[in-house]
Design a protein that fits this description.
Elements lengths: L2 E19 L2 E18 L5 E12 L6 E10 L6 E9 L8 E3 L3 E4 L11 E4 L15 E6 L5 H6 L5 E3 L14 E3 L8 H7 L5 E6 L2
Parallel strand pairs: 9-11, 9-12, 10-11
Antiparallel strand pairs: 1-2, 1-5, 2-3, 3-4, 6-7, 7-8
């Protein structure tokens, strides 16, 4: 399988922070930021994200702290950092515990089962700086079901958000087209208010 890399996104998550040793540990929570590599399956055209996160914990014996890297396929297809040039990956998931390619390196436990030191890194020269994209129009595809809204949007080279994906719409998301489905109720007026700083173009699909 071959995947085209489209961009790099981020989202906040709650991370455990652990200190101590020898079965005497203190846990606290803090806000961390994940990295989401957005890709497109060349064969199917489907877009999805590979989310990379880190968590702290204890080693199996309870002697010392440990770190664990996590990699998960997510239904997130928006990004803030575009790729600088056409980039492709042949193997995204590897054996599940270790992945290494020219875009990112991932190790669930750092190769040490007893004293895990999970980690990941992303190549600095693949993605450009974050872009707000506020100077570009925001297209909103709305209207009847089964009229080709998603199909037409997918055929473009634009960044797409589909309300039927079940992901909460947030005003700081960056995309070019919003496809308003009919599975989850969301007001067009609310969308327009959320992105009032953008020039909005509404396209209504009817049978």
């Amino acid at each position: 399988m071959k995947f085209q890399v489209l961009g790099l996104g981020h989202r906040n998550y709650e991370q455990d922070e652990v200190s101590g040793h020898n079965c005497n540990f203190d846990y606290s929570k803090h806000l961390a930021q994940s990295d989401i590599i957005v890709v497109k399956d060349i064969d199917t055209g489907k877009r999805f994200g590979i989310e990379l996160t880190l968590q702290e914990g204890e080693c199996g014996s309870g002697w010392t702290t440990a770190s664990f890297a996590n990699m998960e396929k997510v239904d997130i297809t928006t990004w803030s950092q575009p790729v600088l040039r056409p980039t492709f990956i042949n193997d995204i998931f590897g054996d599940g515990d270790d992945v290494s390619n020219h875009v990112f390196h991932f190790s669930a436990d750092g190769g040490d089962y007893y004293y895990p030191s999970g980690n990941y890194s992303i190549s600095d020269d693949i993605f450009g700086p974050a872009q707000r994209g506020l100077d570009k129009p925001l297209w909103i595809f709305t209207g009847d079901s089964n009229t080709g809204k998603s199909t037409l949007a997918s055929d473009t080279s634009r960044v797409i958000f589909e309300t039927d994906a079940g992901i909460a719409l947030e005003s700081d998301m960056i995309f070019d087209i919003i496809v308003v489905g009919n599975k989850h109720s969301i007001s067009l007026d609310i969308i327009k208010e959320m992105f009032s700083e953008r020039e909005i173009i509404i396209v209504n699909f009817e049978k």
